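Example (one chain per record):
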Amino acid sequence: MHAESPIRVRFAPSPTGRFHIGGARTALYDFLFARQSGGQFILRIEDTDQKRFDPAAEAEIVESLRWLGMAWDEGPDVGGPYGPYRQSERKESYQLHAEQLIETGHAYRCFCSPERLAQMRQGQQQAKQPPRYDGQCRALDAGEVLARAQRGEPYVIRFKTPHSGTTTAVDLIRGPITVQNADLDDYILMKSNGLPVYHLAAMVDDRLMHISHVLRSSEWLPTFPLHVLLYQAFGWEQPVWVHLSVFLNPSGKGKMSKRQALDNKGGAQTIHPLDMRQAGYLPEAVVNWIALMGWSYDDRTEFFSMPELIRGFSLAKLTPSPAAVNYTKLDHFNGLHIRSLSLDELNRRLVPAFQAAGLPVSEASLHPITPLIQERIRTLEEAVEIAGFFFRQDVEPVAAALLPKGIDVPQASQVLERAAQLVEQTADFSVAPLEAALRQLADELGLTATQFFSLLRLAATGQAVSPPLVETLIVLGKPRTIGLLRASAHNLST
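Predicted structure:
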């Protein structure tokens, strides 16, 4: 592309399955590059595979990108100067370009039946030859081609790949890739139903939409030379090609398996952004996490907001090295981003998580609790686990089996009653005086702070882990605290 050409990048997913972090990372790099350069980020839906097309998959793509904070400048829903942005609505353009390739001798009609092609492949396998089309229709007489087409005989359109010489395709992060043309196939460009395959449709659309940089999965590297040959056949200037690194399984061994990830239900052990949202992950954390799987700013900086990513992103710092999907790092980033939020913003985001668990919360009722948990949670779901008791009608009285080590049942019942009396008699029910009084009571009863406060925590919250205990008692309020302590004392004494 010319240096003065505007930066135009596209994210062009095929809506045939669930949207995963591989697609999200490609979209993110497109988005960052466009925003940094003042260029355009285009969403194009590649839906020509009608057998596998799934409307729900397209809806998930759109919802995921919006949740992750990537707004597109042109696309099916917002329009733009080079639409339509759905390939199923651009069929005429592909047919015209395919015919142009036939007229210039770069493509041909192939009438071979599926049965003949299957028999051909079987023979190649038995002979231990690489599978490729044998070229039977490549040199058909023009009159015969016309007659067979006019009779309605089905055909595909294949690219007439040169049999000699080499093709060099240049990838921005891998450099030149040179292949022998004799090793390439005569790839199908148009199917017999008149719909294009990716090889033709994507190249034509990228050209007509003035795409300057093509960022895509490295799975396209094997057919990369074909795409270069197509550009050459049309006489077009090529975009800058960037094939992104693959994701490896968390073990670092083997390419990330979509099927394997789908078997891990819930939590972050999924490759689907919307599942991560449901599990309590922030979009900022998911963006931060995937940005660093294939790119780095330096060898020190890891925490990034979206504006910081936009400022710091560079194609030159992309790496072709595979990246292992590390869910521990996602938890780490999510905790950092939770702690970076203002209390009001975190409070706002926590409300839906509590409501989804069936707890009757509002921003106002959650407001005093949010400061107690912000430093302790890694996901929004963990907030519900740690602080859900605040909004439950009944807290299970402490059971004998849960008593702290070194405290028997009669002693525990007595300790809880004494603590209830202390709370009842405390005039200044605020953190500092209440904590001092409770610590003094623990000393009087001959208990360690761990024993004493562990027992109180179990009685007041029904769980072994909670926000800071004294602050929790303040939020619960005097009457409820007294009631909970005495309920547990009574439960233990009966």
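Caption: The radius of gyration is 32 Å.
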